[in-house]
Design a protein that fits this description.
Blueprint: H1 35-54, H2 59-78, H3 85-93, H4 102-114, H5 122-132, H6 139-152, H7 159-174, H8 177-191, H9 220-255, H10 264-273, H11 287-299, E1 304-305, E2 315-316
Antiparallel strand pairs: 1-2
Helix pairs in contact: 1-9, 2-4, 2-9, 3-4, 5-6, 6-7, 6-8, 7-8, 7-9
């Protein structure tokens, strides 16, 4: 009996190593960092990340979702909430379709929207962002978004300087840290001509640096330097994250031909594209067979169970 045809994607591409000298050292963490030096380091780091950000391999979607999860975890803590990454993931994946995932789940949704093609739809920012970021619509919010939309399409200065400028404006006008950090990443992506933004700054900007953006301690050069070092640190971490996911994806594709389930290839592709999956019935499989497939992948070292629970489990690379 001839074997059925397989529809597996190609392994993820390989990229040149991230240069060690472009990784910010502890010495770069102080407020006295010179803005030109900081932006030079950020430029080198972002240049190394650029080929990954431009890649169209399916793994890029999962990569951005993991970065969105890290960003959302930091942002909800900035807003005084206690949810960690695992809890945010649960809010999103264990909420039934069309049900409200709650404030924490909506925060994660906002950062996942940033890490999707819709994050660059500038014409929709003013209408959509207040909802995504749980902000009350107001003239100041509208003005901050309009300023960011204009700056996104203005080629003046470095992309990092543009991100720092729009985030400072948003903080000055609205005091909303989620809005400021969301707009910074979106504007950076527009300036770098990335087709899809990469959630970055929120997870790697020192919290103490926010005082330099606006208010009594406002220092524009210190804020630009802080954003630059934040982006350098974020680019290095994002690069490392992609390399780790690439190794995991390669392992998954190596064992995929051993899988015999009718929906096995679709499950493999979904695992390459999605942060987490629950075992559930597919087009030609039952809940039980889906659980067996994921358990087999865990045994083969190709997939991890992400929750540590005996029930309501989630699986992913």
């Amino acid at each position: 009996m001839p074997s059925r045809p397989r529809t597996l994607p190609e392994p993820p591409p390989t990229f040149a190593p991230f240069p060690d000298w472009a990784r910010p050292r502890r010495a770069h963490d102080g407020p006295g960092e010179h803005v030109d030096d900081a932006e030079f380091i950020a430029g080198a780091a972002l240049a190394s990340l650029n080929p990954i950000a431009r890649s169209d391999h399916p793994l890029g979607n999962l990569w951005r979702q993991r970065l969105a999860l890290a960003s959302a975890e930091v942002v909800v803590k900035l807003e005084g909430r206690t949810e960690d990454a695992a809890t945010l993931r649960d809010h999103l994946y264990l909420t039934r379709m069309n049900d409200d995932p709650g404030p924490a789940g909506r925060a994660l949704q906002a950062w996942r929207i940033l890490g999707a093609a819709s994050g660059l739809r500038v014409a929709r920012w003013e209408e959509d962002l207040p909802t995504h970021l749980q902000l009350a619509a107001s003239p100041s919010v509208s003005e901050a978004i309009k300023l960011a939309a204009v700056r996104a399409s203005t080629a003046r200065g470095s992309p990092v300087a543009a991100a720092a400028e729009v985030s400072a404006s948003a903080l000055r006008l609205t005091s909303s840290r989620p809005l400021a950090l969301w707009l910074a990443d979106a504007v950076l992506a527009r300036q770098l001509n990335w087709r899809i933004p990469v959630p970055m700054l929120a997870a790697h900007l020192k919290r103490s640096s926010l005082r330099f953006a606006s208010g009594a301690q406002c220092e524009p050069d210190a804020w630009r330097a802080a954003c630059a070092i934040g982006y350098a640190r974020a680019a290095a971490a994002a690069f490392d994250q992609y390399m780790d996911l690439g190794r995991r994806a390669t392992r998954l594709l190596e064992v995929a031909p051993k899988l015999r389930g009718k929906d096995a290839d679709q499950a493999v592709l979904a695992l390459l594209c999605e942060d987490a999956l629950a075992a559930q019935a597919g087009a030609t499989t039952s809940d039980r067979s889906s659980r067996r497939l994921f358990e087999r992948l865990v045994e083969l070292g190709a997939v991890r169970e992400l929750t540590g629970r005996a029930t309501f489990r989630l699986y992913g690379l």
